[in-house]
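Q: My collaborator sent me two sequences in one message, no labels, and asked for predicted structures for both. Can we handle them in order? The first one she listed is below.
A: Yes, handling them in the order given. First sequence, followed by its structure tokens:
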Amino acid sequence: MLEVKNLKAYVGEKQIIKGVDLTIKEGEVHAIMGPNGSGKTTLSYVLAGHPSYRGEGEANLYGENLLELSPEERARKGVFLSFQNPPFLEGITVLQLLKKAYFRVNGIEDNNIEEYKKMREKVSEGLKLLGLGEEFLKREVNKNFSGGEKKKAEMLQMLVLDPKLAIIDEVDSGLDVDALKAVGKAIRLMKDRGKMILIITHYNRILHHVEPNFVHVMKEGKIVRSGGKELANEIEEKGYSF
């Protein structure tokens, strides 16, 4: 379980998040919605440990405060962040990235053949789920990728690493209908595995494919309203003017 208590976040001396409380249990999907500049992406960064963001308060994952851990330690504890704009990694193929991340997160020696076979099975399953071919693994990470391919690559990493907490930042931006369906299928699988899912989004599109247990609205660094999926429908109709 993730328990966030009075979380504050700063960039330099500027305060972005002004006291957030949030509890996510196993197998739950929580959606954070809100206008631009409300602190949604900052929340994802401070939970994952982005070095430019300083957090105060508590973000306890199974009783251990993530704010006291390095980004690498958080990843090993089971925290995964899917980036809104994932970077191009020159000279690194998708398969190389998956292997390095999987082995590092799980503390496995690079020459462990049996673990590599297990990882490769997970990769093949993920490719099939997302509608990607094996040739996708030979491409440099995000080089000349379409918007859909970038987001599918992020979902493939999520499926292979199998984190306890998946933080998914605006995964629906730039996706066509088919890619959105594939991404939704990957997130639903994680939910079925009992993982904790935090989706950050402006729109209701992804929530048509992944039904949230809770929807929260952020404004000016605070959660100002919470509810069920009906809240997302209300926002789609009326916007954030409440």
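Q: And the one she listed second?
A: Here it is, processed independently of the first:
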Amino acid sequence: MVRAAPIPGKPIQIKVFPSRLLQPETAEKLLNEIDQVKGVIRMLVGGKNLPRKVTCGPGTGSDVNHPNREVIHVGDIAFELHVMVGEVIVEVEDESSKEELIRACERALPFPFEFKQGFFIKTKATLVDYGKYGFKSKDDESINLEDERMLGLIDPHANPESNLCIVAGEGK
């Protein structure tokens, strides 16, 4: 099978699959290692949901005190984990950041992991984005977002700020 060479200057998306779900301490260590890699544009953490309340059954509405729902620190920002981390999708500027990203994962994870390269986070606005954020103006086809890196990182049905944490600004 022949694969086309990546286009220079075009962002690459990489999915890191640890061989097990990460504890909050390991997730924090991994995210901080990835945050130190030059060329990282954005990260998306995915995994098993850690709900705040019981949603069905006899205990509906009661609090869930899950021990893995902790506040972690990535860079200078602290945020609460809403998932047990099972995968991390990282978008990097180009191929040169890929090897450094692998080394960062090797330093942070004491067990095996897989790397997959592909397209996992959308890069262009869809109809849902136009419906949620609206247009900037009648003549402008772009959506009304402060930062285009937010595309694909949030639930279209949720409040835009509810599950999004911006660790570094434009200078990264």
